[in-house]
Write a structure and sequence with these properties.
The longest helix has 13 residues, at 8-20. A hairpin with a 5-residue loop joins strand 3 (48-55) and strand 4 (61-68). The protein contains 2 helices and 6 strands, in the order βαβαββββ. It has helices spanning 8-20, 34-41, and strands at residues 5-6, 29-31, 48-55, 61-68, 74-80, 84-86. 19% of the residues are buried. It starts with a strand and ends in a 13-residue tail after the last strand. It is of the alpha+beta class and 99 residues long. The protein is 21% helix and 31% strand.
Length: 99
């Protein structure tokens, strides 16, 4: 199984890139590997999941997922990434993928 866990330092750089220089055009959607979410929700103490937008070092838009504890705090010890943006990972027949 691939490891989708990324270090906090990389996640901070991705988020900063998104916040200071949002990509154009924006992704329409993201394909999210199910095992990313399964790993996250199976983490002890996780009661919710928060997604952050980011742009990796190669310019690819990413969603990053962190568990959220009962107090609403991000559990940044495990940050998951591995999404694939649309385009190119789209369902062309989806009614949500048309202007």
């Amino acid at each position: 199984m691939p490891n989708y866990n990324i270090p906090l330092i990389d996640a901070k750089a991705y988020a900063k890139s998104w916040q200071t220089n949002p990509p154009k055009p924006l992704a329409k959607a993201h394909l999210i590997p199910l095992n990313v979410l399964q790993q996250l929700v199976n983490t002890a103490g996780v009661v919710n999941v928060r997604a952050y937008m980011g742009v990796d070092a190669t310019g690819v838009q990413r969603l990053m997922f962190v568990g959220v504890d009962v107090n609403g705090k991000d559990m940044t010890s495990s940050i998951y990434c591995g999404t694939q943006p649309c385009p190119n990972h789209c369902d062309p027949s989806s009614p949500l993928n048309t202007p």
